[in-house]
Amino acid sequence: MPNPTIIELFFQLIQCGIGQRDSLSAVPSKEQWTEIWEIAEKQSLMGIAYSGIASLPQSQRPPKQILLSWHQVAETIKENSALQCKQCKAVSNKFLTDGFRNCILKGQGIAQYYPDPLLRNPGDIDIWLEGGYKRISEYIRRYFPNIEPVYHHMDFPIKKGLSIEVHFTPSWMHSPLKNRKLQKFFVEKFEEQCSNTANGNFPVPAIAFNRVYILLHIFRHLFQEGIGMRQMLDYYFILKQGMNTAEKEEYIRTLKELGLLKFASAVMYAMQAMFAMDRTLMPVAPDRKRGEFLVNEIMIAGNFGKYDSRYRIVSKDKEFLHFWNSMQRTARLVRQYPSEALWSPYFKVWHFFWRKQRKQKAKKK
Questions:
Q1: DSSP string covering 268-286
Q2: pLDDT digits over 184-213, tens only?
Q3: Where are the domains of the chain?
Q4: Backbone Cα Rg of the chain
Q5: From CA 24, how far away is CA 15, in angstroms rounded?
Q6: Is the pTM value of this prediction over 0.85?
Q7: Among residues 325, 292, 306, which one has the least CA distance to residue 43?
């Protein structure tokens, strides 16, 4: 590849880190390595990028000082990941002891599919409990009376520095009809997920569940605040596990019911562009136009949209400004995903009053 761009070199480095290639198509300069570092930080992929560096020929590796700094970051990521695995087990056991069957969503449950699970940058702990909103919220308010719910979860700040989101349901959709189908899907699948201890530490969703759920998670964040490459790489490793004909048919049927098939095609294109995924591992054909739009959004926004300069960064208590940012983001997606975009304002207004009502009920108790 003649004169690859910085983004192309970064994609190649990540591909080296996941075993998709052996070397870069050009040797980056010191300045380019600094830029690659910045992109890896923005996308929360410093650990995977370091794995890529470790696999490069000696002649292509960064200058010694950059390499040493990267090594230190990678070691910190490993320490944090190992700690979070222990914390996930402790959190899961606590809820189980207190009468809530559960499973750990996303994060450490997916890290097991990585070549080196400890090099995946850890995030929050998301745990899905059995019991429904009323029982779970009453339990959490015994510890934290002022915690407010959102549609799918409540925060549970039981320990300083440990971010836990307790889920009544894993996710949602703006369209009422599709959301009903989605919630039915979650209810039907819960038993299997809380019984799956394949990683040997704590219950995590089975791969068939994650094929749908993590795709939806990416879709949800695209609408809410932006999505980064870390979540896309999670989905890459989920797809890498493969599926048989019956599983593929079930996957496509479920996506059709939820209106996610077009988005899945965009994600498949991103899998090719960013991670050089083999077409044989893709259950649906990639869509170049939608995929290019998605890749562009990912590279602009970074991890969970934290680097997106198109929208004002506002604190959590500024509800109207959050709503305005969300509407601006949704407007960009109307042509790509009209149903979810057009239902968005109705859902957000309904959700505002839903939260207000539950806050008032909690105060009366």
A1: HHHHHHHH---GGG-SS--
A2: 999 999 999 998 876 668 999 999 999 999
A3: 1-62
A4: 21
A5: 9
A6: yes
A7: 306
